[in-house]
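#onboarding

Welcome to the new folks! Below is a worked example of what a typical request in this channel looks like: someone posts a single protein sequence, and someone else replies with the predicted structure as tokens. Don't worry about understanding the tokens yet, we'll cover that in week two.

Example request:
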Amino acid sequence: MQQPVQLGPAPLTREDVHAVARGDARVEITEAAREAVRTARAHIERLATAERPTYGVSTGFGALAVRHIPPDRRAALQQSLVRSHAAGAGPEVEREVVRALVLLRLKTLASGHTGVRLETAEAMAAMLNAGITPVVREFGSLGCSGDLAPLSAAALALTGEGDVRDADGVLVPAREALERAGIEPVRLAEKEGLALINGTDGMLGMLVLALRDLHVLLDVADLTAAMSVEALLGTDRVFAADLHALRPHPGQARSARRMADLLAGSGIVASHRGPDCTRVQDAYSLRCSPQVHGAARDTVAHAEAVADRELAAAVDNPVVLADGRVESNGNFHGAPIAYVLDFLAIPVADVASIAERRTDRMLDVSRSHGLPPFLADDPGVDSGHMIAQYTQAAIVSELKRLAVPASVDSIPSSAMQEDHVSMGWSAARKLRKAVDGLRTVLAIELLTAARALDLRAPLRPAPATAAAVTALRERVPGPGPDRHLAPEIAAAEDFIRSGALLDAVANHSEV
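Example response:
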């Protein structure tokens, strides 16, 4: 049984986020965190009765912060804040994203820097553990003052309003779902509404999930590239470690090692290694695969460093400090996350682009070194993989558009009080689409390279690449007359997404 994720003084890890968001792991608030939450709440309750106004405790919000709210209206202030800010629109956001968002907000609540009551944090933990997922809409966050509309939808559910998906995915009113789970709806007290919505948790959650996916996809890209090198009668000499040591980028070295390892023992490569081979250099899309994939790996490593810092952060405004001070700040600004979300979209587009170029070479009879046109069974009658490459090209073109940064845009809001925003949520949403697009592009390269390797028989591929082809053939048939290709592309995507492709080659590769 999976161990519960502990919420306390230690930062969450990326693995923790993945376990809760995708693995439905339970969460527990540690005793140290409970004490910190109680201490911070005591500071807030003292300020609630003080004459001096405190933002979020005894004032309005945003441009309305100049209005002092009398004590008997402060509970209504917090509920009104959540209701009015739950103003999202568009399609529902994915369950894993919402679970990550709720977990990361709870992590900050448990830090002892927000001033919420312990029972509020406990109710949020119980909602996660019951598998209750608030309905969050696509649009509504500018990535500054936090992911306001998405987090407000989650907070509204905690109070028993709005809609949620239950553990079975059924849409039900929040109050009904909480009642079934034995959770008392929260009646918000001073500062709590603001603390529940003032974080960068949605964009951070999407960053963490994308990083996990990209680790897998970059390993897949090395594999499909190695298969394409083999299928196109390319050389493995360019992946030698001493060549890559001349340009010491760690990601490049790793991709080169992987590709060399995946091609080890290839009968196809050995067949044209002799002195009679007149091809001096392979095309860039083959020869430079480690440089492109490696640069993407190094970009992922930078983004991981940013994500880890954010996972150690407590983002709220105002924030309760250790000495009891409650201070306004700008830590809710999403720029650090937005920049790396945008940055990642660039190598995603480029890795897909070079994969599409390798695929196209295998289909072009003038560049494929003996393969039939479009890998067709009966060229002219059959079109083979001609239009699969069109699909790749359409996706790559879309990925280039998605690589345009969102974080350079800013639309002032809240009567110019919030006059510069990060658009980090938008950067995260487009990165998720980009990651899905890369997976499809690699699935098509996998299908094409596997078909080309089959057509090279009786020459035998390397043990690792042969294992990939064999495992794929359990899901997709080998060469033959034209078939409906869309289901085969979908099957290859699922093969990648499930992890089964990399598992299939694991016993034949050391890297």
